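Lab notebook: predicted structure, single chain.

Context: the supervisor wants predicted structures on file for every construct in the current expression panel, including those that have not yet been purified. This is the next one on the list. No modifications to the sequence; it matches the entry in the shared construct table.
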Amino acid sequence: MRIHRLVSVTTIPLLCLTALTACGSGDKGGSLDGPLGNQAPAKNGGSGGFDGGGKAGAPGLPKAGTMAKAAQIVSAYGACNDISTDPKDDDFFPGDEIYDSKWGVTERGACGKGTRIFMFKDLKTFQAKYKAELDADRKESPNKGHRGKFLLGQDFAVLPDQKPVIRNAIKPGGLLILNCHPDFKTPSGYRKDPALVQGCVLTDYFED
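Prediction complete. Output recorded below exactly as produced.
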């Protein structure tokens, strides 16, 4: 059974509305597999934690609390007005069931446009599980995960299906990309904040 939840972007916290633009069209293929200048880095996932503070001018990541709120946040970056939590729905991706309690995932959702949302209860567990999976995959595919994979909030992860969604989401006040590839580097001016798991970072650099 499909669950329809209409959300309004007018109620999104100001934290998530900073410098957002409308999602473009015609630029597809947003699998995660513009420079922000001298922005002060936040301690997102590092020693400062996700307290919404960090250094001045660099707030923490958005926190959802519920799937409905996570969909509301994602709607600021791309279409996610129609969220389903039914694994039998056509919008669910085969194989997503691997993101289960071992990842700390408590709920999975799919937007009508293909973007998926994963609620989790423990950020470190989620990051550690992703790194372990990537390390195993890299034995056969060394470049696997070089662009990262998930967009992260404090308690939810997003797998977008379009590049404009990714570009909008990583603007100031939005989400950050989890990257655990050992050879990952950013050009100067991009964020590369330490994650909770050694060898992983949170970044606003999307290598197109």
